[in-house]
Amino acid sequence: MSADHYNGTSAGVTRHYAPYVQADWGYANHWYPALFSTELADGTVKGVTIGGHDIALRRSAGKAYALSDRCIHRGVKLSAKPMCLSEGTVTCWYHGYTYSVDDGSLTTIVGNPDDSLIGRAAIRTYPVEEVNGMIFVFVGDADYGTPPPLESDLPMRVTNDPNNSPVAHLMDDNIIVRGIHRKLVGNWRLAAENGLDPGHLLVHWDNQILVALDRALPLGVNALTDDATEEIDIPNGPKGVMNRYDRPDLYQPVLENPKVDIKARGTVQHYFRTSLWVPGVLMVEHWPITDVVQYEFYVPIDDHHHEYWEVVATRAHTDEERAEFDFKFEHFFKPLALEGFNNSDVFAREATEEHYTRFDGWNNEMLCDMDYSIIAWRKMAARHLRGYFESPYRDED
Amino acid sequence: MSADHYNGTSAGVTRHYAPYVQADWGYANHWYPALFSTELADGTVKGVTIGGHDIALRRSAGKAYALSDRCIHRGVKLSAKPMCLSEGTVTCWYHGYTYSVDDGSLTTIVGNPDDSLIGRAAIRTYPVEEVNGMIFVFVGDADYGTPPPLESDLPMRVTNDPNNSPVAHLMDDNIIVRGIHRKLVGNWRLAAENGLDPGHLLVHWDNQILVALDRALPLGVNALTDDATEEIDIPNGPKGVMNRYDRPDLYQPVLENPKVDIKARGTVQHYFRTSLWVPGVLMVEHWPITDVVQYEFYVPIDDHHHEYWEVVATRAHTDEERAEFDFKFEHFFKPLALEGFNNSDVFAREATEEHYTRFDGWNNEMLCDMDYSIIAWRKMAARHLRGYFESPYRDED
Amino acid sequence: MSADHYNGTSAGVTRHYAPYVQADWGYANHWYPALFSTELADGTVKGVTIGGHDIALRRSAGKAYALSDRCIHRGVKLSAKPMCLSEGTVTCWYHGYTYSVDDGSLTTIVGNPDDSLIGRAAIRTYPVEEVNGMIFVFVGDADYGTPPPLESDLPMRVTNDPNNSPVAHLMDDNIIVRGIHRKLVGNWRLAAENGLDPGHLLVHWDNQILVALDRALPLGVNALTDDATEEIDIPNGPKGVMNRYDRPDLYQPVLENPKVDIKARGTVQHYFRTSLWVPGVLMVEHWPITDVVQYEFYVPIDDHHHEYWEVVATRAHTDEERAEFDFKFEHFFKPLALEGFNNSDVFAREATEEHYTRFDGWNNEMLCDMDYSIIAWRKMAARHLRGYFESPYRDED
Question: What is the CATH code for C136-384?
Answer without folding.
Answer: 3.90.380.10
